[in-house]
Amino acid sequence: MPGAAGSSIRSRLLAANLLLLPLFLLVTFWVLDRAFAAYQEDAVRERLWLQHLLLAKAADWDGTQWRLDSLDEPRLELPDSGLYAFVLSASGELLWHSPSASQLGSLSEPLPEVQALALRQGLHKARLGSSLFRECSLQGDYFCHATGIAWGSSGPRATFLLMESQREVIAARDSYRAYLLGLSGALSLLLLLSLAWVVRWGLAPLQRIAEDIRRLQLGELVRLDGGVPRELMPLTQSVNQLLASEKSRRERVRNTMDRLAHVLKTPLMLLRNSHEEGAQFRELVQEQVGRMLGIVEGELARARLDGRAPDVMRQFVPVRPVLVRIVEAYRRLPRLQGQGEIVIDVAGIADAAVFHGDERDLQDLFGSLLENSMKYCRARIEVVADIVDLDGEDWLSISVSDDGEGIPPGFENQILRRGARADTSSVGQGLGLAIVAEIVSAYGGSLHADRSALGGAMFVVNLPGARDRAAGPS
Known about the structure:
Layout: H1 9-58, E1 60-61, E2 66-67, E3 83-89, E4 94-97, H2 110-121, E5 131-137, E6 141-150, E7 157-165, H3 167-218, H4 233-273, H5 278-303, E8 315-318, H6 319-331, E9 343-349, E10 354-357, H7 359-376, E11 380-390, E12 393-402, H8 429-442, E13 446-451, E14 457-464
Parallel strand pairs: 9-11
Antiparallel strand pairs: 1-2, 3-4, 3-7, 5-6, 6-7, 8-10, 11-12, 12-14, 13-14
Helix pairs in contact: 1-3, 4-5, 6-7, 7-8
């Protein structure tokens, strides 16, 4: 049942079908039965109206009584045939009856019973030229059809009453209902088998994904197959992104431990094999401990990249408030080199710029770029951020330019290589740009360096998945 723990989608769908299918068939059966009953009633009304026309054709008034000698309907001549004709006066008196009415079912005296029925239901009051049609009960069910007539403009007025037994109609209706029940049963079985096949066929992609996940756990696969229906593509893509993120995290942890083991080995060996004493030994210890602390600090900065949010957990973050807040914080810091105030121009940060990811990643990325430019600029930095169209998709582009000495020719790509800086004990351009490169790589973006219009260096970051806030994320 819906919401039950451990219940499968297939059982839910089949249970819903088992509940809804009988209801649907019951409603269909009722509608068809009512339609057939209405059709029968219309057919009887039409048939009795034609009999009235035949009676009117055969009717004759001899001045004292009504005479209907030649009847075209054979059933009116046969006793208890199921079709009966009567002529009633305006007061309800029985003036004439067909030979078939001499015996009417099991009634011992049918004529008084018919007259009483006509008076009770007002059948003798049918207006001239109009008809009354209703169901009557007289030790049996009948259709009664009464029509008001007049003999000429000055002749007497009377009512022609026709009664037809419902036995044949009821028998036909029962036969039709039996046919409907049989047909409904066959259709129910066919529909249930068809729905079971449809459910099995529709859930086959989910079963394939479940099997692929089992094979992932056994190590037989490294990622989910992309050949799934369009509705399941976000699921498989998210799982594959999580798998890739976890694999990358494990590799970074392993590389970090390898680097720590390698770079810490030298200072530890120096301390163990040192023959210095007194102040010289303390100086050596402080130097090597400071070096190791710098190494650990650098590796911790790299380890922060292990927590980058995968695509399935990212949010849309307005860029301008975050970047302006970081700029204001850095403006309060002292110059890292040189003298004088630094002008940081943020007019190029568009209000519509949006970052698709973790706000902490945006802070680390831009903070590293801004810190790098503040260290090497003379007096001015320009920040530009906006949404750009790349291959028909919206990307976030962030550029930081300075008026420093710039990047030596040929070193544009070298300084962007992650881990290219050998001296990890000092926090500088190598580590900051390594953090930027790691973040950009984790988000599937691009990072390149060039010469800025201010004369110094310009670093440009492009990140996918941006959306204009006015349009909203899709």
